[in-house]
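This section describes the prediction task in plain terms. A model, or a person checking by hand, is given the sequence of a single protein chain and must write out its three-dimensional structure as a string of tokens. No templates, partner chains or ligands are provided. The sample shown here is typical of the held-out split.
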Amino acid sequence: MSDLIALDRVGMVYTTASGAVEALREISLGVGAGEFAALVGPSGCGKSTLLRIIAGLRPATSGAVAVAGRPVDGPLHAVGMVFQAPILLKWRRVLDNVLLPAELAGLDSRRHEDRARELLRLVGLDGFADKYPRELSGGMQQRAALCRALLLDPPILLMDEPFGALDAMTRDELNLELLRVWGEGNQRRKTIVFVTHSIPEAVFLADRVVVLTPRPGRVASIVPVSLPRPRTVASRASGDFGALTFQIHESLTRA
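The expected answer:
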């Protein structure tokens, strides 16, 4: 598996009124094409910052980042981002929110309407295209945000704890939806980097779990997840699932 995303000794230092704050230190990591990688670590260890550096939204202060063999020196069009909050425009219908990336890219949004409606159907929002965000539950809004990120079919999806604010049942449902959208079991899959505070969620979703230390964030360990796919809720009842969860928990406490 070739590395689609390559981080070489990436560091990040913020300048604040009270002095410099080192967020990340010498992060070296490769994410293969079609891989699902999860990042876990304590609050403030730089997980979200790392996603923004990969996306080209924030330059690293040291090291190098490359995507598809090219240095990242600005925002990448081949990346879809999903944040913890859905950030839907409240004055636009759900369909119009999903079509927003096409408009921002200067494309004819009407030519993408069929794809937008198909994505809404895929995530269980068929029939809600003409609703406004306020008429949707939190889980439904996050589904719409996922559709928006997928509209232009980006090969890379960066997700910053997108389900953290949802109840457990809705979170489980969206984890399964995400695996389906990702293309679990298919050869042509997107590359996903997924930030979460939940170790069980990371193990359930990912091919590998990257454990970061407290600030400044460094790679403490990388744990391969060999659980068979496709995964179901029953996967969490296996002994292997529990053993991996415990292994990552131990790595976090030692970091």
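For orientation: Residues 85-154 form one domain.
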